Amino acid sequence: LPNCTITPHFATNTVYVREALVTDIPNLVEDTLEERGMLRIEEQKGRKELSEAYRITREFGMDELVWNHISLQLSDGSYLITPGNRMFDDVSPQDLVKNGVNAEADVIHEAIYKARSDIKAVVHLRTPATVAVSCLEMGFQPLAQEAAHFVGRVASLPFFDRGCCETAEQLHIRDAVSDVKVNTLLMENNGFCTFGKSLGEAWMLAYYFDRACQTQLNCLQSGVKIRYPDPKALARSASLPLVGPAEGEWEALRKMLSRKGRARPTY
Question: Beta strands 121-125 and 191-196: pairing type?
């Protein structure tokens, strides 16, 4: 056991051991119980918020049956994620599992968390627009205001055969997202991941990346010459922080869910 010392019976009669029994050990027990209590409260809140994230994703039609995952890392290093057998609007706080249970999802999410200590949430989706852009040789092109948050922050991952070595895929993912400026991973011929310092930031990035990809496709489908934005103007917009507005939008989305009667209480 950690922080545990085993001594012979006769040694308990020493001043040092008697003092430890009276002061040190109770303090350690109290600290451990307090830490566990805080972790339990954190996990309960995390389960509620993450289950809401799944239902909000469904609300905007960004899900794909039971596939794809959103995860939230806890302060002890573990993370919550869907088991992969629930429709997004049917995910409750109790349904979420810890990492290590969903092996397929762990390949991506674990790799990102290991590569980036600043990341606390990962959103992995395959919306029609983002999949289409992931199949384009030109890749993602920021064309409008909603794309500003992704200027110089989108990394690419070559298409991986899911039957190949998972370790190799994880290494490629870690290399791709290691730069702290990167907030999005475009997975070629597959989909994308966004990640942030909070669940709200990661989800709002996913929402706007999907919108930016839709704009790109709309422009390409128009068949006319595209007016590309001024790179300097895009760079200035990209320098603006996302976290503040993202948290405001995220809380508004959670309230929207409550208004529609779809928010579920924590267990």
Answer: antiparallel
Distance CA(175)–CA(126), nearest Å, equals 21
What would the pLDDT profile of 54-112 be if each residue is shown by its tens digit? 999 999 999 999 999 999 999 999 999 998 889 999 999 999 999 877 777 889 999 99
Q: Using an 8 Å Cβ cutoff, are 143 and 109 in contact?
A: no
**Residue 256: count of CB within 10 angstroms of its CB:** 13
Q: How many angstroms separate the CA atoms of 157 and 184, rounded?
A: 11
Judge contact between 211 and 146, C-beta under 8 A. Answer: yes
Contact 122, 106 (CB under 8 A): no
0.90 surpassed by pTM:
no
Contact 116, 195 (CB under 8 A): yes
User: How far from the centroid of its chain's Cα atoms is residue 20's Cα?
Assistant: 43
Place of tokens 């702290």: 180
N residues, the chain: 267
In 91-174, beta strands by DSSP E: 97-98, 121-125, 154-157
DSSP structure string for 11-29:
GGGSHHHHHIIIIIHHHHH
- Structure tokens belonging to residue 141: 């092109």
Q: What SS3 class is residue 260?
A: coil
Question: What span, in angstroms and rounded, lies between the C-alpha atoms of 48 and 265?
Answer: 7
Q: Rg of the Cα trace of the chain? A: 23
Question: Whole-angstrom Cα distance, residue 73 to residue 64?
Answer: 23
d(CA 198, CA 79) in angstroms, rounded, equals: 13
Distance CA 166, CA 172 (A): 10
